[in-house]
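Job type: complex structure
Entries:
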Amino acid sequence: MEETLQKILEEYRKNEGNIVTILQDIEKTFGYIPEEAVTWFSKKLDIPASRFFGVATFYSQFHLKPRGRNIITVCRGTACHVKGSERLINRLFIELDITDNEDTTSDQKFTVEKVNCIGACGIAPVAVVNHEVHGKMSLDKMMKEVRKLKKSE
Amino acid sequence: MDKEIVIKVCTGTGGVASGGEKVLSAFQDAIAATGIEATFYEKCTTKKVGCRGFCSKDVLVDILINGEKTTYKHVKVDMVPRIFDEHIVKGNPVAEWTVEDDYYTFHEKQQKVVLSHCGEIDPEDIDAYIAVGGYEAARKAILSMSPEEIVDAVKKSNLRGRGGAGFPTGLKWELGLRIRSDIKFVICNGDEGDPGAFMDRSVMEGDPHSVIEGMIICAKATGSRRGYIYVRAEYPLAVKRLQLAIDMCHKQKFLGKKIFGSDFDFDLSIFQGAGAFVCGEATALMRSIEGKRGMPSPKMWRSAEKGLWDKPTVLNNVETFANIPRIILKGASWYRNLGTERSGGTKVFSITGKVKNTGLVEVPLGVSLRHIIYDIGGGIEGDKTFKAIQTGGPSGGCIPAEHLDIEVDYESLAQVGSIMGSGGMVVLDETSCMVNTAKFFLEFTQEESCGKCTPCRIGTKRMLEILGRITRGKGRDGDIELLEELGRYIRAASLCGLGMTAPNPVLSTLRYFRHEYEAHIKEKRCPAAVCRDLITYTIHEEICKGCGACKKVCPADAIRGTRKTPHKIDQSLCVKCGTCFDACKFKSIMKA
């Protein structure tokens, strides 16, 4: 980990970065923000860890807990809402057995999350399955994707 | 073969999601595979183009043979060989796959200024932009115009901030010019956070150079050397295309030191947001670039005086900047005459929801909502009844049918209790529940409230709780009045625009659709059959054929019945997900 963090630190120095850019790099590398990474940077830069956590908890892009290997993001923008995206999410939670206040399955296979709007409103409702945008999502299509991912696991 | 053939494939976010990249490479493969004369290869080019605003018909493909354009809709990879063989090689378009009249009326009824390049040129190719007159305006501004002349032109054009508030752009620039400082910044606000709005995304993806050019002109006008484009994290493709555009500008010396050979320096970089709606607010956005929590601060002074790192900063929206090169080239009076007396030019709206043609629409300010919904949008999907149009995103309001004929501009929308906002328009029909819609927006603002000031942080939470109990059938007498009172206080006492406008969706629906709230509270009934706790799904025994389709898809195993006999839903197990309702081919499942 040390080595990776060192690289991020170099990037930070080279590009005149800040806490947000450091956290973005950490998130990109590890898929979440590990506590050790924050303490490491806090010591190196002499910035209190609370400042890092303050920023990390403010923005929705940062996650403090590890996420699932497959990430399904359902758009909750207005157009998607009107076209029934709430039902997609509810169904995913039931199907994947994710309990309230959680977003990841206990076996770390799936994370289901909401996004405010990805701006693909013309093909609503939209879901992003592992970085691939799927438009005009129906419950049926959604479940097919989930089954496909379950199989490949 | 002496034909010149151009194949344009839409590769905006919508296009890519529908398989645009694959279609493009299928065409490229097809060209490479044909053994026709070598000259054919040279004369036949493929181009990726940005969003043309009609995403529901994606993937859209234009085929131009000697300039004559044929457009195909819903193109899939397996359709490519036939189109290629019959149309490109033999010259007979595949009529059954081409777009119908609605595609042309959708476009003909619009007036494209900002979107004029989107869907026409390759956004990843600077030469394509230069070929349509790109960077002429920046060259003119830098080499032959004084800052005062530029500011004057923008002022005369009557252009107002397209981010939503409608502050006159020329005045903002004038302020930026007058302030004396060794360091000044130009920022482009590409944090298009309003759910249901995607015009800025389309411009950044489809015509990134126009935004950069607008910023260069602004830098010259205000004497700034450094600029940032703040793009939200949810728009990866926009970030990629803008970065590519900036890199190409460096090579052409349109950015960097001594641009266009003058002694003017200006450089630009992208800052990626990290997912916070409130960062669309100017002061919050600047804190975010500084690497802090993106919380708004009281506006003691304008950003043009004290902005990023306390230096004078001119901050404009993507669409505002994209308008600038056109104003400089075609003249301020041309632009001014496009709009109304109070606001010049055109505005891009994204029209979505229950309307036939969803997509981006650019019209001169001052046209009616009816024109946008019916003439361009094609009317309501499934020919249902129009109920309301929601404008301005979570800060806006719902406008009912009786106001469809108002002229769209900043002031008139405010008069009917909504706002222009960034330009998102969501059409709602009889099957949309207004209480649920208001709750949806409040859920959003409540979650996105940064928590700094109490009226917004706690007020929106309380309003949401009240709306929550109303939609669950637990509403009490006096709830409506309480919502109105809270809404007034939040509006008056919040620190930034997020809080000040957060109650709008509730207040405007209360104003026009009070009876729906009353039905929820007094009769415990959702008239549109949307609110989950107030509806039950039942199977109509006479219509049910006992095919078992519903039983198969039910995630809660709540449907009982043997084949070929009417089925029943066990209400104690039903989770009201609605899957069975969709699955039934005989419409035997009732929702009430």
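Summary: Chain A has two domains: 2-58, 70-152. Chain A touches chain B through 46 residues (CB under 8 Å).
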